[in-house]
Specification:
Blueprint lengths: L26 E5 L36 E5 L25 H4 L4 E4 L3 E5 L2 E6 L8 E9 L15 E8 L2 E6 L4 E2 L5 H9 L3 E7 L11 E4 H5 L6 H9 L4 E14 L3 E11 L27 E12 L18 E6 L9 E5 L20 E5 L5 H12 L2 H6 L6 E5 L13 E6 L8 E2 L2 E4 L4 E10 L5 H10 L3 H8 L3 H4 L10 H19 L7 H22 L14 H4 L2 H4 L1
Parallel strand pairs: 2-12, 9-15, 17-18, 17-19, 19-22
Antiparallel strand pairs: 1-2, 3-4, 4-5, 5-11, 6-7, 6-14, 7-8, 8-10, 12-13, 13-14, 15-16, 20-22, 21-22
Helix pairs in contact: 5-11, 7-10, 10-11
Length: 573
């Protein structure tokens, strides 16, 4: 690669894609008194069974921050159609009246009505809320700066439903991998063959509300747990006995909108003792500890769970074409025995519709809005915005004007960009890892993208020199850490969806800067070097936006521009 290849802004070829986004409502916070400890709040793991808590109070454990409530204006896995009233349950067996439970509680109305009193949070579930799919989009809000436990990372999205079994309410993750129309013989066969998963469960907390017939369930029991498997990730990364500590974990923030409820959970993980390597321990099996926390026996991770209503009408799916580079949502459709294969691949894409379908160029009904998180340094925001808005040139070629917009989160905002559709965050870690990442969450029914987050690592402008020195020194293991975002350490397999564009671009940028500096053609502290870095940031942002739009790498296009053109400063500018 020519060392001046990144001096100019990359050219963007038009791409045919469809997009949709919902705007973000403004929010107003209400401060609540600090919660007290709750020993029964946590249910870790996929089966929601609490393991023994670490013995004693872990060093570094401190009271959680006050709970904030933010109000905004404004076929089932069990085979039962959504909204079907539940079968009559046995006598309530002593549950208090609905009004008694919520007495003196703060009420927040949104997708679900929430009630909060001290550290307790209840969700009001109406009869029509049972056996109905909801979209659960979980993310890590704050992490530890290493081991892939980084604030801003997306976890796997899930389709969940609430199921009542007598006096227990279960939060079930639907099995969306295997499908057939409900009510058909094939649908009944699929339901009999494949199981959903239990995420958490809790007893009904109240008698039915006399008029609405709704009941209360304790949100703490459903969400104050290790649903994302952070404890397992820590154990695999460090070979230490980290476990979820329910007593020092709590719901700290609630945000409610008409179509979304978001709960932020401060989760404590601890181990009673630190394992040390024994003589003769094989290489690769040596226990280590996090280098970024004051006491390795104790650490906090904040999880954000956003539950949203699914689109009332699923977007029309578009079958993937191997000639086009899109990410896909895959499922097995057993409804047609004559199909060559039951495997169906739908393109991941946003929903984009013209305000004026007859116009050659029209604004979209709902533009795709990217929120710049307030964590992005001021000096880099213009470069990031430019990388996002560059995609409007491609959308204009297919008839959309201003399809993408950029908004900046105010410093005093009361909403979180993590639950705002599409966002860009500045992520800080202790060592270079992925440099930049652009994941997204989709509606598995159609492939419609419902949420996306771009994470740009703060070390992106220092990482290239460290990477190159490690490569040239033959430190393969260290380079593997960088390329796999910690996977070489944690034992995780290499993610086939992983993208190394930012890493490789950073390496090329660092090499080019070194060459230009050695030739005396650039002042390393001058405005040219600064613009060089800003162009690199714009390039990386453009690349990651493409991933959030559902686009994979266009490998064939990598040969569209010849080496001679790349070596021509007039062309690259």
């Amino acid at each position: 690669m020519n060392p001046t290849a990144f001096l100019g802004r990359p050219r963007l070829a038009p791409v045919l894609i469809a997009v949709f986004v919902a705007g973000c409502a403004a929010t107003t916070p209400t401060s609540i008194s600090s919660p007290s400890s709750s020993g029964s709040a946590g249910r870790p793991g996929a089966v929601a069974a609490a393991p023994p808590a670490p013995s004693g109070t872990a060093p570094g454990a401190s009271p959680v921050t006050p709970l904030r409530v933010v109000n905004a204006a404004g076929p089932s896995a069990s085979g039962v159609p959504p909204g079907t009233p539940q079968p009559a349950s046995p006598p309530p067996g002593g549950q208090p009246a609905f009004a008694v439970v919520i007495k003196d509680a703060k009420k927040s109305e949104g997708l679900f009505t929430l009630y909060q009193k001290d550290e307790k949070v209840w969700i009001e579930l109406k009869p029509e809320d049972f056996n109905k799919p909801f979209f659960l989009s979980p993310k890590i809000a704050t992490g530890i700066g290493e081991a892939s436990v980084l604030g801003g990372l997306m976890s796997s999205a899930r389709l969940v439903e609430f199921r009542r079994v007598y006096n227990q309410v279960q939060m079930i993750e639907r099995n969306t991998e295997y499908t057939a129309p409900a009510g058909t013989p094939e649908g009944r066969a699929v339901a009999a063959a494949f199981s959903p998963s239990l995420l958490a469960s809790t007893p009904v907390a109240s008698q039915p509300e006399p008029e609405r017939k709704s009941v209360l369930v304790e949100a703490n029991a459903l969400f104050v747990n290790d649903m994302l498997g952070i404890g397992t990730r820590l154990q695999r990364a460090y070979r230490q006995g980290y476990g979820f500590d329910a007593r020092n974990s709590a719901i700290t923030t609630l945000r409610v909108k008409p179509d979304t409820v978001a709960l932020q959970v401060l989760a404590h993980f601890a181990t009673a003792a630190i394992n040390v390597a024994q003589p003769g321990t094989p290489a690769g099996a040596v226990p280590t500890v996090p280098a970024t926390v004051p006491d390795a026996r104790s650490l906090f991770v904040t999880m954000l769970y956003a539950i949203s209503a699914l689109p009332a009408e699923p977007m029309q799916p578009r079958l993937a074409d191997a000639r086009l580079g899109h990410f896909t949502s895959t499922h097995w459709d057993f409804s047609d025995d004559l199909a060559r294969t039951p495997l169906v691949r739908d393109v991941d894409r946003w929903r984009l519709e013209k305000k004026d379908p007859a116009a050659a160029l029209s604004e979209p009904v709902k533009p795709l809005v990217y929120w710049l998180d307030r964590t992005i340094p001021l000096k880099y925001r213009d470069a990031v915005s430019a990388g996002i808005l560059e995609w409007n040139k491609a959308f204009e070629r297919i008839g959309f004007k201003d399809a993408i917009q950029v908004r900046v989160q105010p410093d005093d905002a009361d909403f979180d960009t993590l639950d705002s559709g599409a966002s860009v965050l500045w992520m800080t870690s202790a060592a270079p890892s992925f440099v930049a990442i652009g994941p997204h969450h989709v509606d598995p029914r159609s492939g419609e993208i419902l949420a996306a987050n771009i994470g740009i690592e703060s070390l992106a402008f220092r990482a290239q020199r460290a990477q190159r020195s490690q490569i040239l020194n033959g430190s393969v293991a260290e380079y593997a850490k960088l390329l796999q975002s910690g996977g070489a350490v944690t034992g995780e397999p290499f993610d086939p969806r992983a993208c190394l564009e930012a890493d490789q671009s950073a390496e090329q940028m660092g090499y080019a800067l070194d060459v230009l500096e050695a030739r005396g053609e650039i002042d390393p502290d001058g405005p040219e070097a600064r613009q060089f870095v800003l162009d690199y940031l714009t390039h990386v942002t453009m690349h990651e936006v493409g991933h959030t739009l559902g686009l994979r790498h266009n490998f064939r296009a990598s040969r569209v521009v010849s080496d001679e053109q790349l070596s021509d400063p007039a062309y690259t500018r």
